[in-house]
TrEMBL record:
Domain of life: Eukaryota
UniProt xrefs under InterPro entries: NAC-dom, NAC_dom_sf
A biological-process GO annotation: regulation of DNA-templated transcription
One of the Pfam families matching this protein, by short name: NAM
Record keywords, A-Z: DNA-binding, Nucleus, Transcription, Transcription regulation
Organism expressing this protein natively: Punica granatum (Pomegranate)
Protein's name in the database: NAC domain-containing protein
GO molecular function, one term: transcription cis-regulatory region binding
Annotated NAC domain residues: 5-144
Length: 144
């Protein structure tokens, strides 16, 4: 896909742009596509396999992914893969546009193995979600 982009093009959106220009469009229409953001099931991919699935990028990659529930009737998110799990670090960051809360950003680190004995890796993911959408069947955009 990168061939159709002008020389020197770099995809480096702000948090606000990710929410307003990409995630909100994807949530409104799951058929929405972007040359820079691939659709991937993050629970079926190990972080080291993600660069090959990315639409573009050498050291940073963006993905749309459906939120997977840990339990069918619960609100907790499943972030486990076959080889490990993504663990939340710190508290969520609020993202504003014109003084209005539009989304949240969560930072996660990948651990190899199973909790609580997982081994911390250098893989970091930033997960964005819309603030005003119900939690059922949520789409998120992730930056790794």
């Amino acid at each position: 896909m990168e061939e159709s982009l002008p020389p020197g093009f770099r995809f480096h959106p702000t948090d606000e742009e990710l929410i307003t220009c990409y995630l909100s469009l994807k949530v409104s229409d799951v058929r929405f596509t972007s040359k820079a953001i691939a659709d991937v099931d993050l629970n079926k991919c190990e972080p080291w396999d993600l660069p090959a699935k990315a639409s573009m990028g050498e050291k940073e990659w963006y993905f749309f992914s459906m939120r997977d529930r840990k339990y069918p009737t619960g609100l907790r998110t499943n972030r486990a893969t076959e080889a490990g799990y993504w663990k939340t670090t710190g508290k969520d960051k609020e993202i504003f546009r014109a003084g209005r809360l539009i989304g949240m950003k969560k930072t996660l680190v990948f651990y190899k193995g199973r909790a609580p004995r997982g081994e911390k890796s250098n893989w970091v993911m930033h997960e964005y979600r819309l603030e005003n959408k119900p939690t059922f069947k949520t789409i998120k955009v992730c930056y790794i």
